[in-house]
From TrEMBL:
The keyword Transport applies. Low-potential electron donor to a number of redox enzymes. This is Flavodoxin I. It comes from Planomicrobium stackebrandtii. Transmembrane segments: none annotated. Keywords: Electron transport, Flavoprotein, FMN, Transport. Belongs to the flavodoxin family. Gene3D superfamilies: 3.40.50.360. Its cofactor is FMN. SUPFAM superfamilies: Flavoproteins (SSF52218).
Amino acid sequence: MALTNCNPKLAIVYASVTGNTEQLAEMLQESVLSQEFRSKLYRVEEFPLSELSSCDVVLIGTYTWGSGEIPEEMQELYQAIEKLDRKQLQTAVFGTGDSFFAEFCGAVDRFRDMLYVKTQLIATLKVELMPQPSDAIRCEKMVKLIKPRTS
Ligand SMILES: Cc1cc2nc3c(=O)[nH]c(=O)nc-3n(C[C@H](O)[C@H](O)[C@H](O)COP(=O)(O)O)c2cc1C
């Protein structure tokens, strides 16, 4: 099927140190591409913040650091979205964490609270450490929540 203007332009932006969140981001990218959306996968360090104004959808992936905190390399993205305050931007936040810690995937919760206010938050997804094949179904469910472009 040919791509049309109804296909939203999408970016998946993630941070990962040991590879768990990267795997989840790749799983999501597979789901997104199977829906024939135009999507690019970026490590956060490589993501041009100017894309936030032209994308229809941004899926944000983060591990959790410290005591439920957003990692340092995700701070700039967080602040840019907060400042942009673009309600028509569809967003979702996903991440991996370790339930050994008091705030499981706390960084996902912190992003969620901001995205809910500043953007059109469509979903959140938390995975315990390394993604399992069954998480592919959860990724598909998240991707199905993305709305087509209206213009
Ligand atoms: C110092 C340190 C602090 C962490 N703090 C938390 C935390 O508060 N909550 C949580 O859910 N996971 C926490 N984690 C676990 C990581 O978020 C988890 O291992 C994650 O899957 C790593 O993602 P990555 O493989 O993409 O780097 C912590 C890990 C380390 C090393």
